[in-house]
Amino acid sequence: MSDQPVSPGKLAESLKSLQKQKGLPPVHLWNPDFCGDIDMKICRDGSWMYMGSPIARESMVKLFSTILRHDDDDCFYLVTPVEKVRIQVEDAPFVAVSVESKESGMVFTTNVGDEVILNQEHPLWVEVDPSTGEPSPYIRVRAQLDALIHRNVFYQLIEMAEEKTTDEGVELFISSHSQSFTLGTLGDH
């Protein structure tokens, strides 16, 4: 690891040529040397912090989100063709801030502007905290990168949900692309 701190400005400089491209950069194809850790963190609420202060420029956050990668070592990295730096992520790197039911299926929008159609490639699941019983719903955005579904959006999904009686109780589920995704079970029936 490098002893030199990596700055967001340096990363942004190496991204200038990438901004001209359409779509997401092919970070899965880039394999630069690891340059060290950067004091950057994505908080559970989707805000990005650098050295303890919020990154206020939305355009910079969106730019960084396009070069984010979650590797098999369970670490998150910002990756360019020439450098790779590790950052911290409290929960999921994105937050799903809206959902809309369209002909194409349930479309989620993240805090950085990604649009994701709920389907087999982009599944939804709910993890329940064993000590509090509180649900945390997620949707896969892209290659090992997920979005925590905002509480208000989760309430919207519950309002849209269909019910099915099971041995465990009443299961709530939503459908998209001819697939069902469970939101949870309501106690005994």
From TrEMBL:
**Gene3D superfamilies in the cross-refs:** duf1285 like domain (3.10.540.10), duf1285 protein (2.30.270.10)
Known InterPro entries for this protein?
Answer: DUF1285 (IPR010707), DUF1285_beta_roll_sf (IPR023361), DUF1285_C (IPR048342), DUF1285_N (IPR048341)
Q: Pfam families given for it?
A: DUF1285_C, DUF1285_N
Q: Which residues form the DUF1285 domain?
A: 25-92, 93-183
- At the top level, the lineage of the source is Bacteria
May I ask which residue range the UniProt record assigns to the signal sequence?
Answer: none
What is the name listed in the Swiss-Prot or TrEMBL entry for this protein? Proteophosphoglycan
Q: Report the source organism.
A: Endozoicomonas numazuensis
Q: What is the lineage of its organism?
A: Bacteria, Pseudomonadati, Pseudomonadota, Gammaproteobacteria, Oceanospirillales
